[in-house]
Amino acid sequence: ETVNSQATIDHRRESGVEQIVVVAYGEFLGSAILNFGKFPPINVHPSLLPDLRGAAPVQWALLRGYRASGVTTQFMAKKMDAGDVLLQEKSEIGEEENSQGLLERLGKV
Length: 109
Hints:
Elements: H1 6-15, E1 21-23, H2 31-34, E2 42-45, H3 57-63, E3 68-75, E4 85-92, H4 99-106
Parallel strand pairs: 1-2
Antiparallel strand pairs: 2-3, 3-4
């Protein structure tokens, strides 16, 4: 029911999983998940962090009139979208692009 449940933590230990990657995941990861294993979980976020942390970054980029957005891959930390950045890929926003189209395109970056 939740990634922070004891059942999930036990499953991760028993399965030998060493790394978790999340994409468009809306739940905070607790300390037991963030601190388990050699490396923290990795987050793939559809913006050029640290700008537009949190929910709806694609929509906010369009509402604010940004000419570019992108995708950030980062280690996760306790604070939302605040971990160390591993990679970023910038992508120009088309003049007629809407949030659905931009989100789909960023999913392929």
